[in-house]
């Protein structure tokens, strides 16, 4: 019996070692398995990210007003339009749109070129809003800023006839300082008026003549747009950007201007842009009762109240 005690002690110690040592091994194995699982998941995520980056870019084919074709990569970081293009229904000069989320209404945009306007007839013809040119900068070297000579007449008569009104400024700013000068001009001339729609920055190209903005870069146009719009919004008005597919593709960086809604111009049967817009100028050859000659007609897409 004296010799049995050490043997029993050894057996007891072995049992203790197995209970502790083996348990530690199991825990160690479990941790290693978890680490391997995490690494595998990370590797899988990396592979999926690589596949995403290797995807072919999405290319948009579009035409300008002269029918010239263009191809451009779609920027996936810019909000896309939510409209179903097949639901834009043309009936002569009139256009409608309706789906589960959006409804629409029609409006016009005018400058002094439209001459005398019978705004009551415009309203009776089913047009509910108007964008009126408040002013413009000349495209010659001097680049003077001018008021539209019919602005006051148009805005007063349009609102009296029951139309909602916004304004636009035809810009030829070559830098941010000039863009802010244009914004100040607009704000000064809006004194005493209430608007139902935004103030629009309209940086158009001059297609049939030399212009002071011919050599302004897209980066600078984007800076000018931000300078104008931020000044307008700082004064308590809503700002909007007038654009077309050429400008969205090659001039304005809409990713940097995402805070502002877009008034999109395109005279094709369907809007070619993949990006979101709130107003579509769909023709510049419309016939509207109350206006002599042709004029621009627009459709505004209005989100329905959530139920």
TrEMBL record:
GO molecular function, one term: lysozyme activity
Stretch forming the signal peptide: 1-24
UniProt xrefs under PROSITE patterns: GLYCOSYL_HYDROL_F25_2
Keyword Signal (UniProt): yes
Entry's Gene Ontology BP terms: carbohydrate catabolic process; cell wall macromolecule catabolic process; peptidoglycan catabolic process
UniProt feature, compositional bias: Basic and acidic residues: 26-56
Region (Disordered), start-end ranges: 24-56
Short name of any one Pfam family annotated for the protein: Glyco_hydro_25
Keywords (A to Z) from UniProt: Signal
Family: Belongs to the glycosyl hydrolase 25 family.
Protein name: Lysozyme
Organism per entry: [Ruminococcus] lactaris CC59_002D
Taxonomic lineage from the root: Bacteria, Bacillati, Bacillota, Clostridia, Lachnospirales
């Amino acid at each position: 019996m004296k010799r049995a005690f050490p043997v029993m002690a050894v057996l007891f110690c072995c049992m203790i070692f197995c209970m502790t040592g083996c348990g530690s091994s199991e825990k160690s194995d479990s941790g290693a398995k978890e680490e391997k699982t995490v690494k595998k998941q990370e590797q899988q995520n990396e592979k999926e990210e690589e596949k995403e980056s290797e995807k072919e870019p999405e290319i948009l084919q579009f035409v300008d007003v002269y029918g010239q074709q263009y191809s451009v990569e779609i920027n996936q970081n810019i909000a896309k339009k939510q409209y179903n293009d097949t639901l834009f229904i043309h009936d002569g000069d009139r256009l409608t749109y309706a789906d589960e989320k959006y409804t629409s209404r029609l409006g016009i945009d005018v400058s002094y070129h439209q001459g005398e306007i019978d705004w009551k007839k415009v309203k009776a013809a089913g047009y509910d809003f108007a964008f009126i040119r408040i002013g413009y900068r000349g495209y010659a070297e001097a680049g003077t800023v001018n008021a539209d000579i019919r602005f006051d007449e148009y805005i007063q008569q349009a609102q009296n006839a029951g139309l909602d009104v916004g304004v636009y400024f035809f810009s030829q700013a070559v830098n941010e300082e000039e863009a802010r000068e244009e914004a100040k001009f607009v704000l000064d001339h809006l004194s005493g008026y209430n608007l139902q729609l935004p103030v629009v920055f309209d940086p158009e190209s001059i297609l049939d003549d030399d212009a002071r903005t011919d050599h302004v870069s897209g980066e600078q146009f984007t800076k000018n747009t931000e300078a104008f719009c931020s000044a307008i919004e700082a004064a308590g008005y809503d700002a909007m950007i007038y654009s077309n597919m050429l400008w969205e593709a090659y001039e304005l960086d809409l990713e940097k201007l995402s805070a502002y809604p877009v008034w999109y111009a395109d005279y094709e049967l369907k809007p070619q842009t993949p990006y979101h817009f709130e107003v579509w100028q769909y023709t510049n050859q419309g016939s509207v009762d109350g206006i002599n000659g042709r004029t621009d007609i627009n459709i505004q897409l209005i989100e329905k109240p959530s139920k």
